[in-house]
């Protein structure tokens, strides 16, 4: 398992002229709606590597109706074309607004929740991406996530421009977001976004439970099943759930006090194996009254005995 500290590629905040498309486009229609953009990009690439914002509406009439997807062309492996990790279908993102000693101690517990706690099992997440700088992560991450994921870290495999100059998004796979509220309550934010970058379904489910492993495997990177499957699993616990509820209302499970020791809040017997995954973790919690102050995340071990890998993708 690795943690990638991914820096925004903009010197300041994302410019205001980069806007999300306002009208929903069905995923099945996204390819056709953005063929002019793909044709335009390829035409510009043949002449210059400078990706500016040009008037490309004239390309609509010239673009072949079968203009190939970027996934079917050389762009898929062009690292100058893709400067983020969405092509790896990363599922776990850390979107917190500050990281002091206490926050890092809480983050360590969330990281340990991504362990399966079962012999012979690999990590639930192969890669976790942390958005930097932290000050650009808004407290309500749902409003800005897609721009942070694929505009602040330009990824044209995900971002596609509509004819009006606004952006649509191809990557609609389920995400697990760890935000400020997750650090305090254990409630991870499961979310699925639409093509406009606005979330279509979201749910806060408890990470401090072995049930997280079943949820994660159900929709994990191996099969890329939409979040509906996880929501069905999670919502099945609510016998009085209104079938006609607004999907934008975020349902929540019970929070826990993340400042208490891990073995006291984690729902599952396997947590007793924490010493195998994070040597010295329980001793550090005792010294810190429930918080592992000063505990380096690199001390969390992989199943092969290697440390948690932390790498940086700096601003280019």
Describe the structure.
This protein is an alpha/beta fold and about 325 residues long. It has one domain. Helices cover about 25% and strands about 15% of the residues. The chain contains 11 helices and 10 strands. It has an 8-stranded mixed sheet. A two-stranded antiparallel ribbon has the order 4-5. A hairpin with a 5-residue loop joins β4 and β5 (about 165-170). α7 (about 210-220) runs antiparallel to α8 (about 230-235). The chain is elongated and about 65 Å long. The mean pLDDT is about 80.
Our measurement of the CA-to-CA distance between the termini, rounded to an integer number of angstroms, reads 25 Å
What is the domain total for the residues? 1
Helix and strand run: EHHHEHEHEEEHEEHHEHHHE
Strand content: 15-25%
Which structural class fits the helix and strand makeup?
Answer: alpha/beta
What coarse outline follows from CA principal-axis ratios?
A: elongated
How much helix, percentage-wise, in residues?
A: 25-40%
With helices defined by DSSP (H or I, 4 residues minimum), what is the helix count? Answer: 11
Sequence stretches where pLDDT stays below 50 over 5 or more residues: none
Summed over residues and divided by their number, the pLDDT gives a mean of 80
Number of DSSP E strands? 10
Rg: 21 Å
Oligomeric grouping of the chains: single chain
Numbering strands along the chain, what is their spatial order in the largest sheet?
9-8-7-6-2-3-1-10
**Main sheet?**
8 strands, mixed
